[in-house]
Amino acid sequence: MWLDRLSQFLRKITGGDLWAKPTGGAQRLPLIPWQWDGPKRGVLYIPESFADRPGTLLHEIFHTFEARFEIQPIHGFRSEVRSAFPDWKGSGEWDFYSHHLGRVSSSVGLSNFIFAGRDGYAVTAALFAANREAAALAGPGIRRAFGLSEEARRNHPAFASDATNEALYARALGLNPSCLPALRGLGMLRLGAKDPLAAKALFERAWALDPGSADTAYWMGVTEANRRDTETAALWFRRALALEPGDRRPAEYLGRLRRE
To answer: How many whole angstroms from its chain centre is CA 63?
Structure first.
């Protein structure tokens, strides 16, 4: 699919928004609003007023570089976090960039500064069509369904009962039966209620529409671990790590499985 040939997207913010700030990094691309985000790609937001400042552009591009090669924490050249990079002996922002560019170039090669194919997740025409059909069936209710799911997600677990959140997810799925955050959220509630089979069915529905979700893969792993299928659980946790290497949850769960 055409998306697999593209690794980086540059978005230039035009107009007179005085509060617009340049940012860089990576995110999953919202291919079908309120329904489905596609694979992760590098993204830059450069307001028009910053477009002629090469230092700003380099700074934001490096945030995308950090996201691709998992260089954390960000702004490592600052004194409060530079201890995280003991192999860097220089000083200053530009020297910090030079150090990491050289390190990556000599180890894996700058030609690997691409996101496409990194996590084994490719958008197929069938996957795109399935989500487009789901969005079309939901119609105008699709945005409201997403909003209800977000309300439940913000509630959980401190500010509302499971019954309250379950009602919100049920309303969301009534508006859009393929609402991904509602399927995941309701699956988590079912898991908390000691019903891993019901949870698995919900997570499987979400995964069929969004096999790029590290969160769904993680919860599939938790579900299988609850069902005592540690081998399948480990496969799901490794899949979650492939999609989101910076997420500590699946790595920690894998460690627990090895110790058990």
So the answer is: 16
In degrees and rounded to multiples of 5, residue 5 shows phi and psi of -90, -5
Backbone phi and psi for residue 212, each to the nearest 5 degrees, phi listed first: -110, 10
As given in the structure block, the two tokens for residue 208 are: 């069929």
Residue 174 three-state SS: helix
Place of tokens 């050249």: 77
Mean pLDDT of the chain: 88
Read off φ and ψ for residue 121, nearest 5 degrees: -110, 120
For residue 236, name the pLDDT band (cuts at 50, 70, 90). Answer: very high
- Is-contact 250 241, C-beta < 8 A? yes
At 47, the amino acid letter reads P
Judge residue 216's burial from the number of C-beta atoms within 10 Å of its C-beta, 0-12 exposed, 13-18 middle, 19 or more buried. Answer: buried
CA 222 to chain CA centroid, nearest Å: 18
Q: What is the pTM assigned to this prediction?
A: 0.81
- List b or e across 94-131, with b for residues whose CB sees 16 or more CB atoms inside 10 angstroms: eebbebbeeebeeeeeeeebebbeebebebeeebbebb
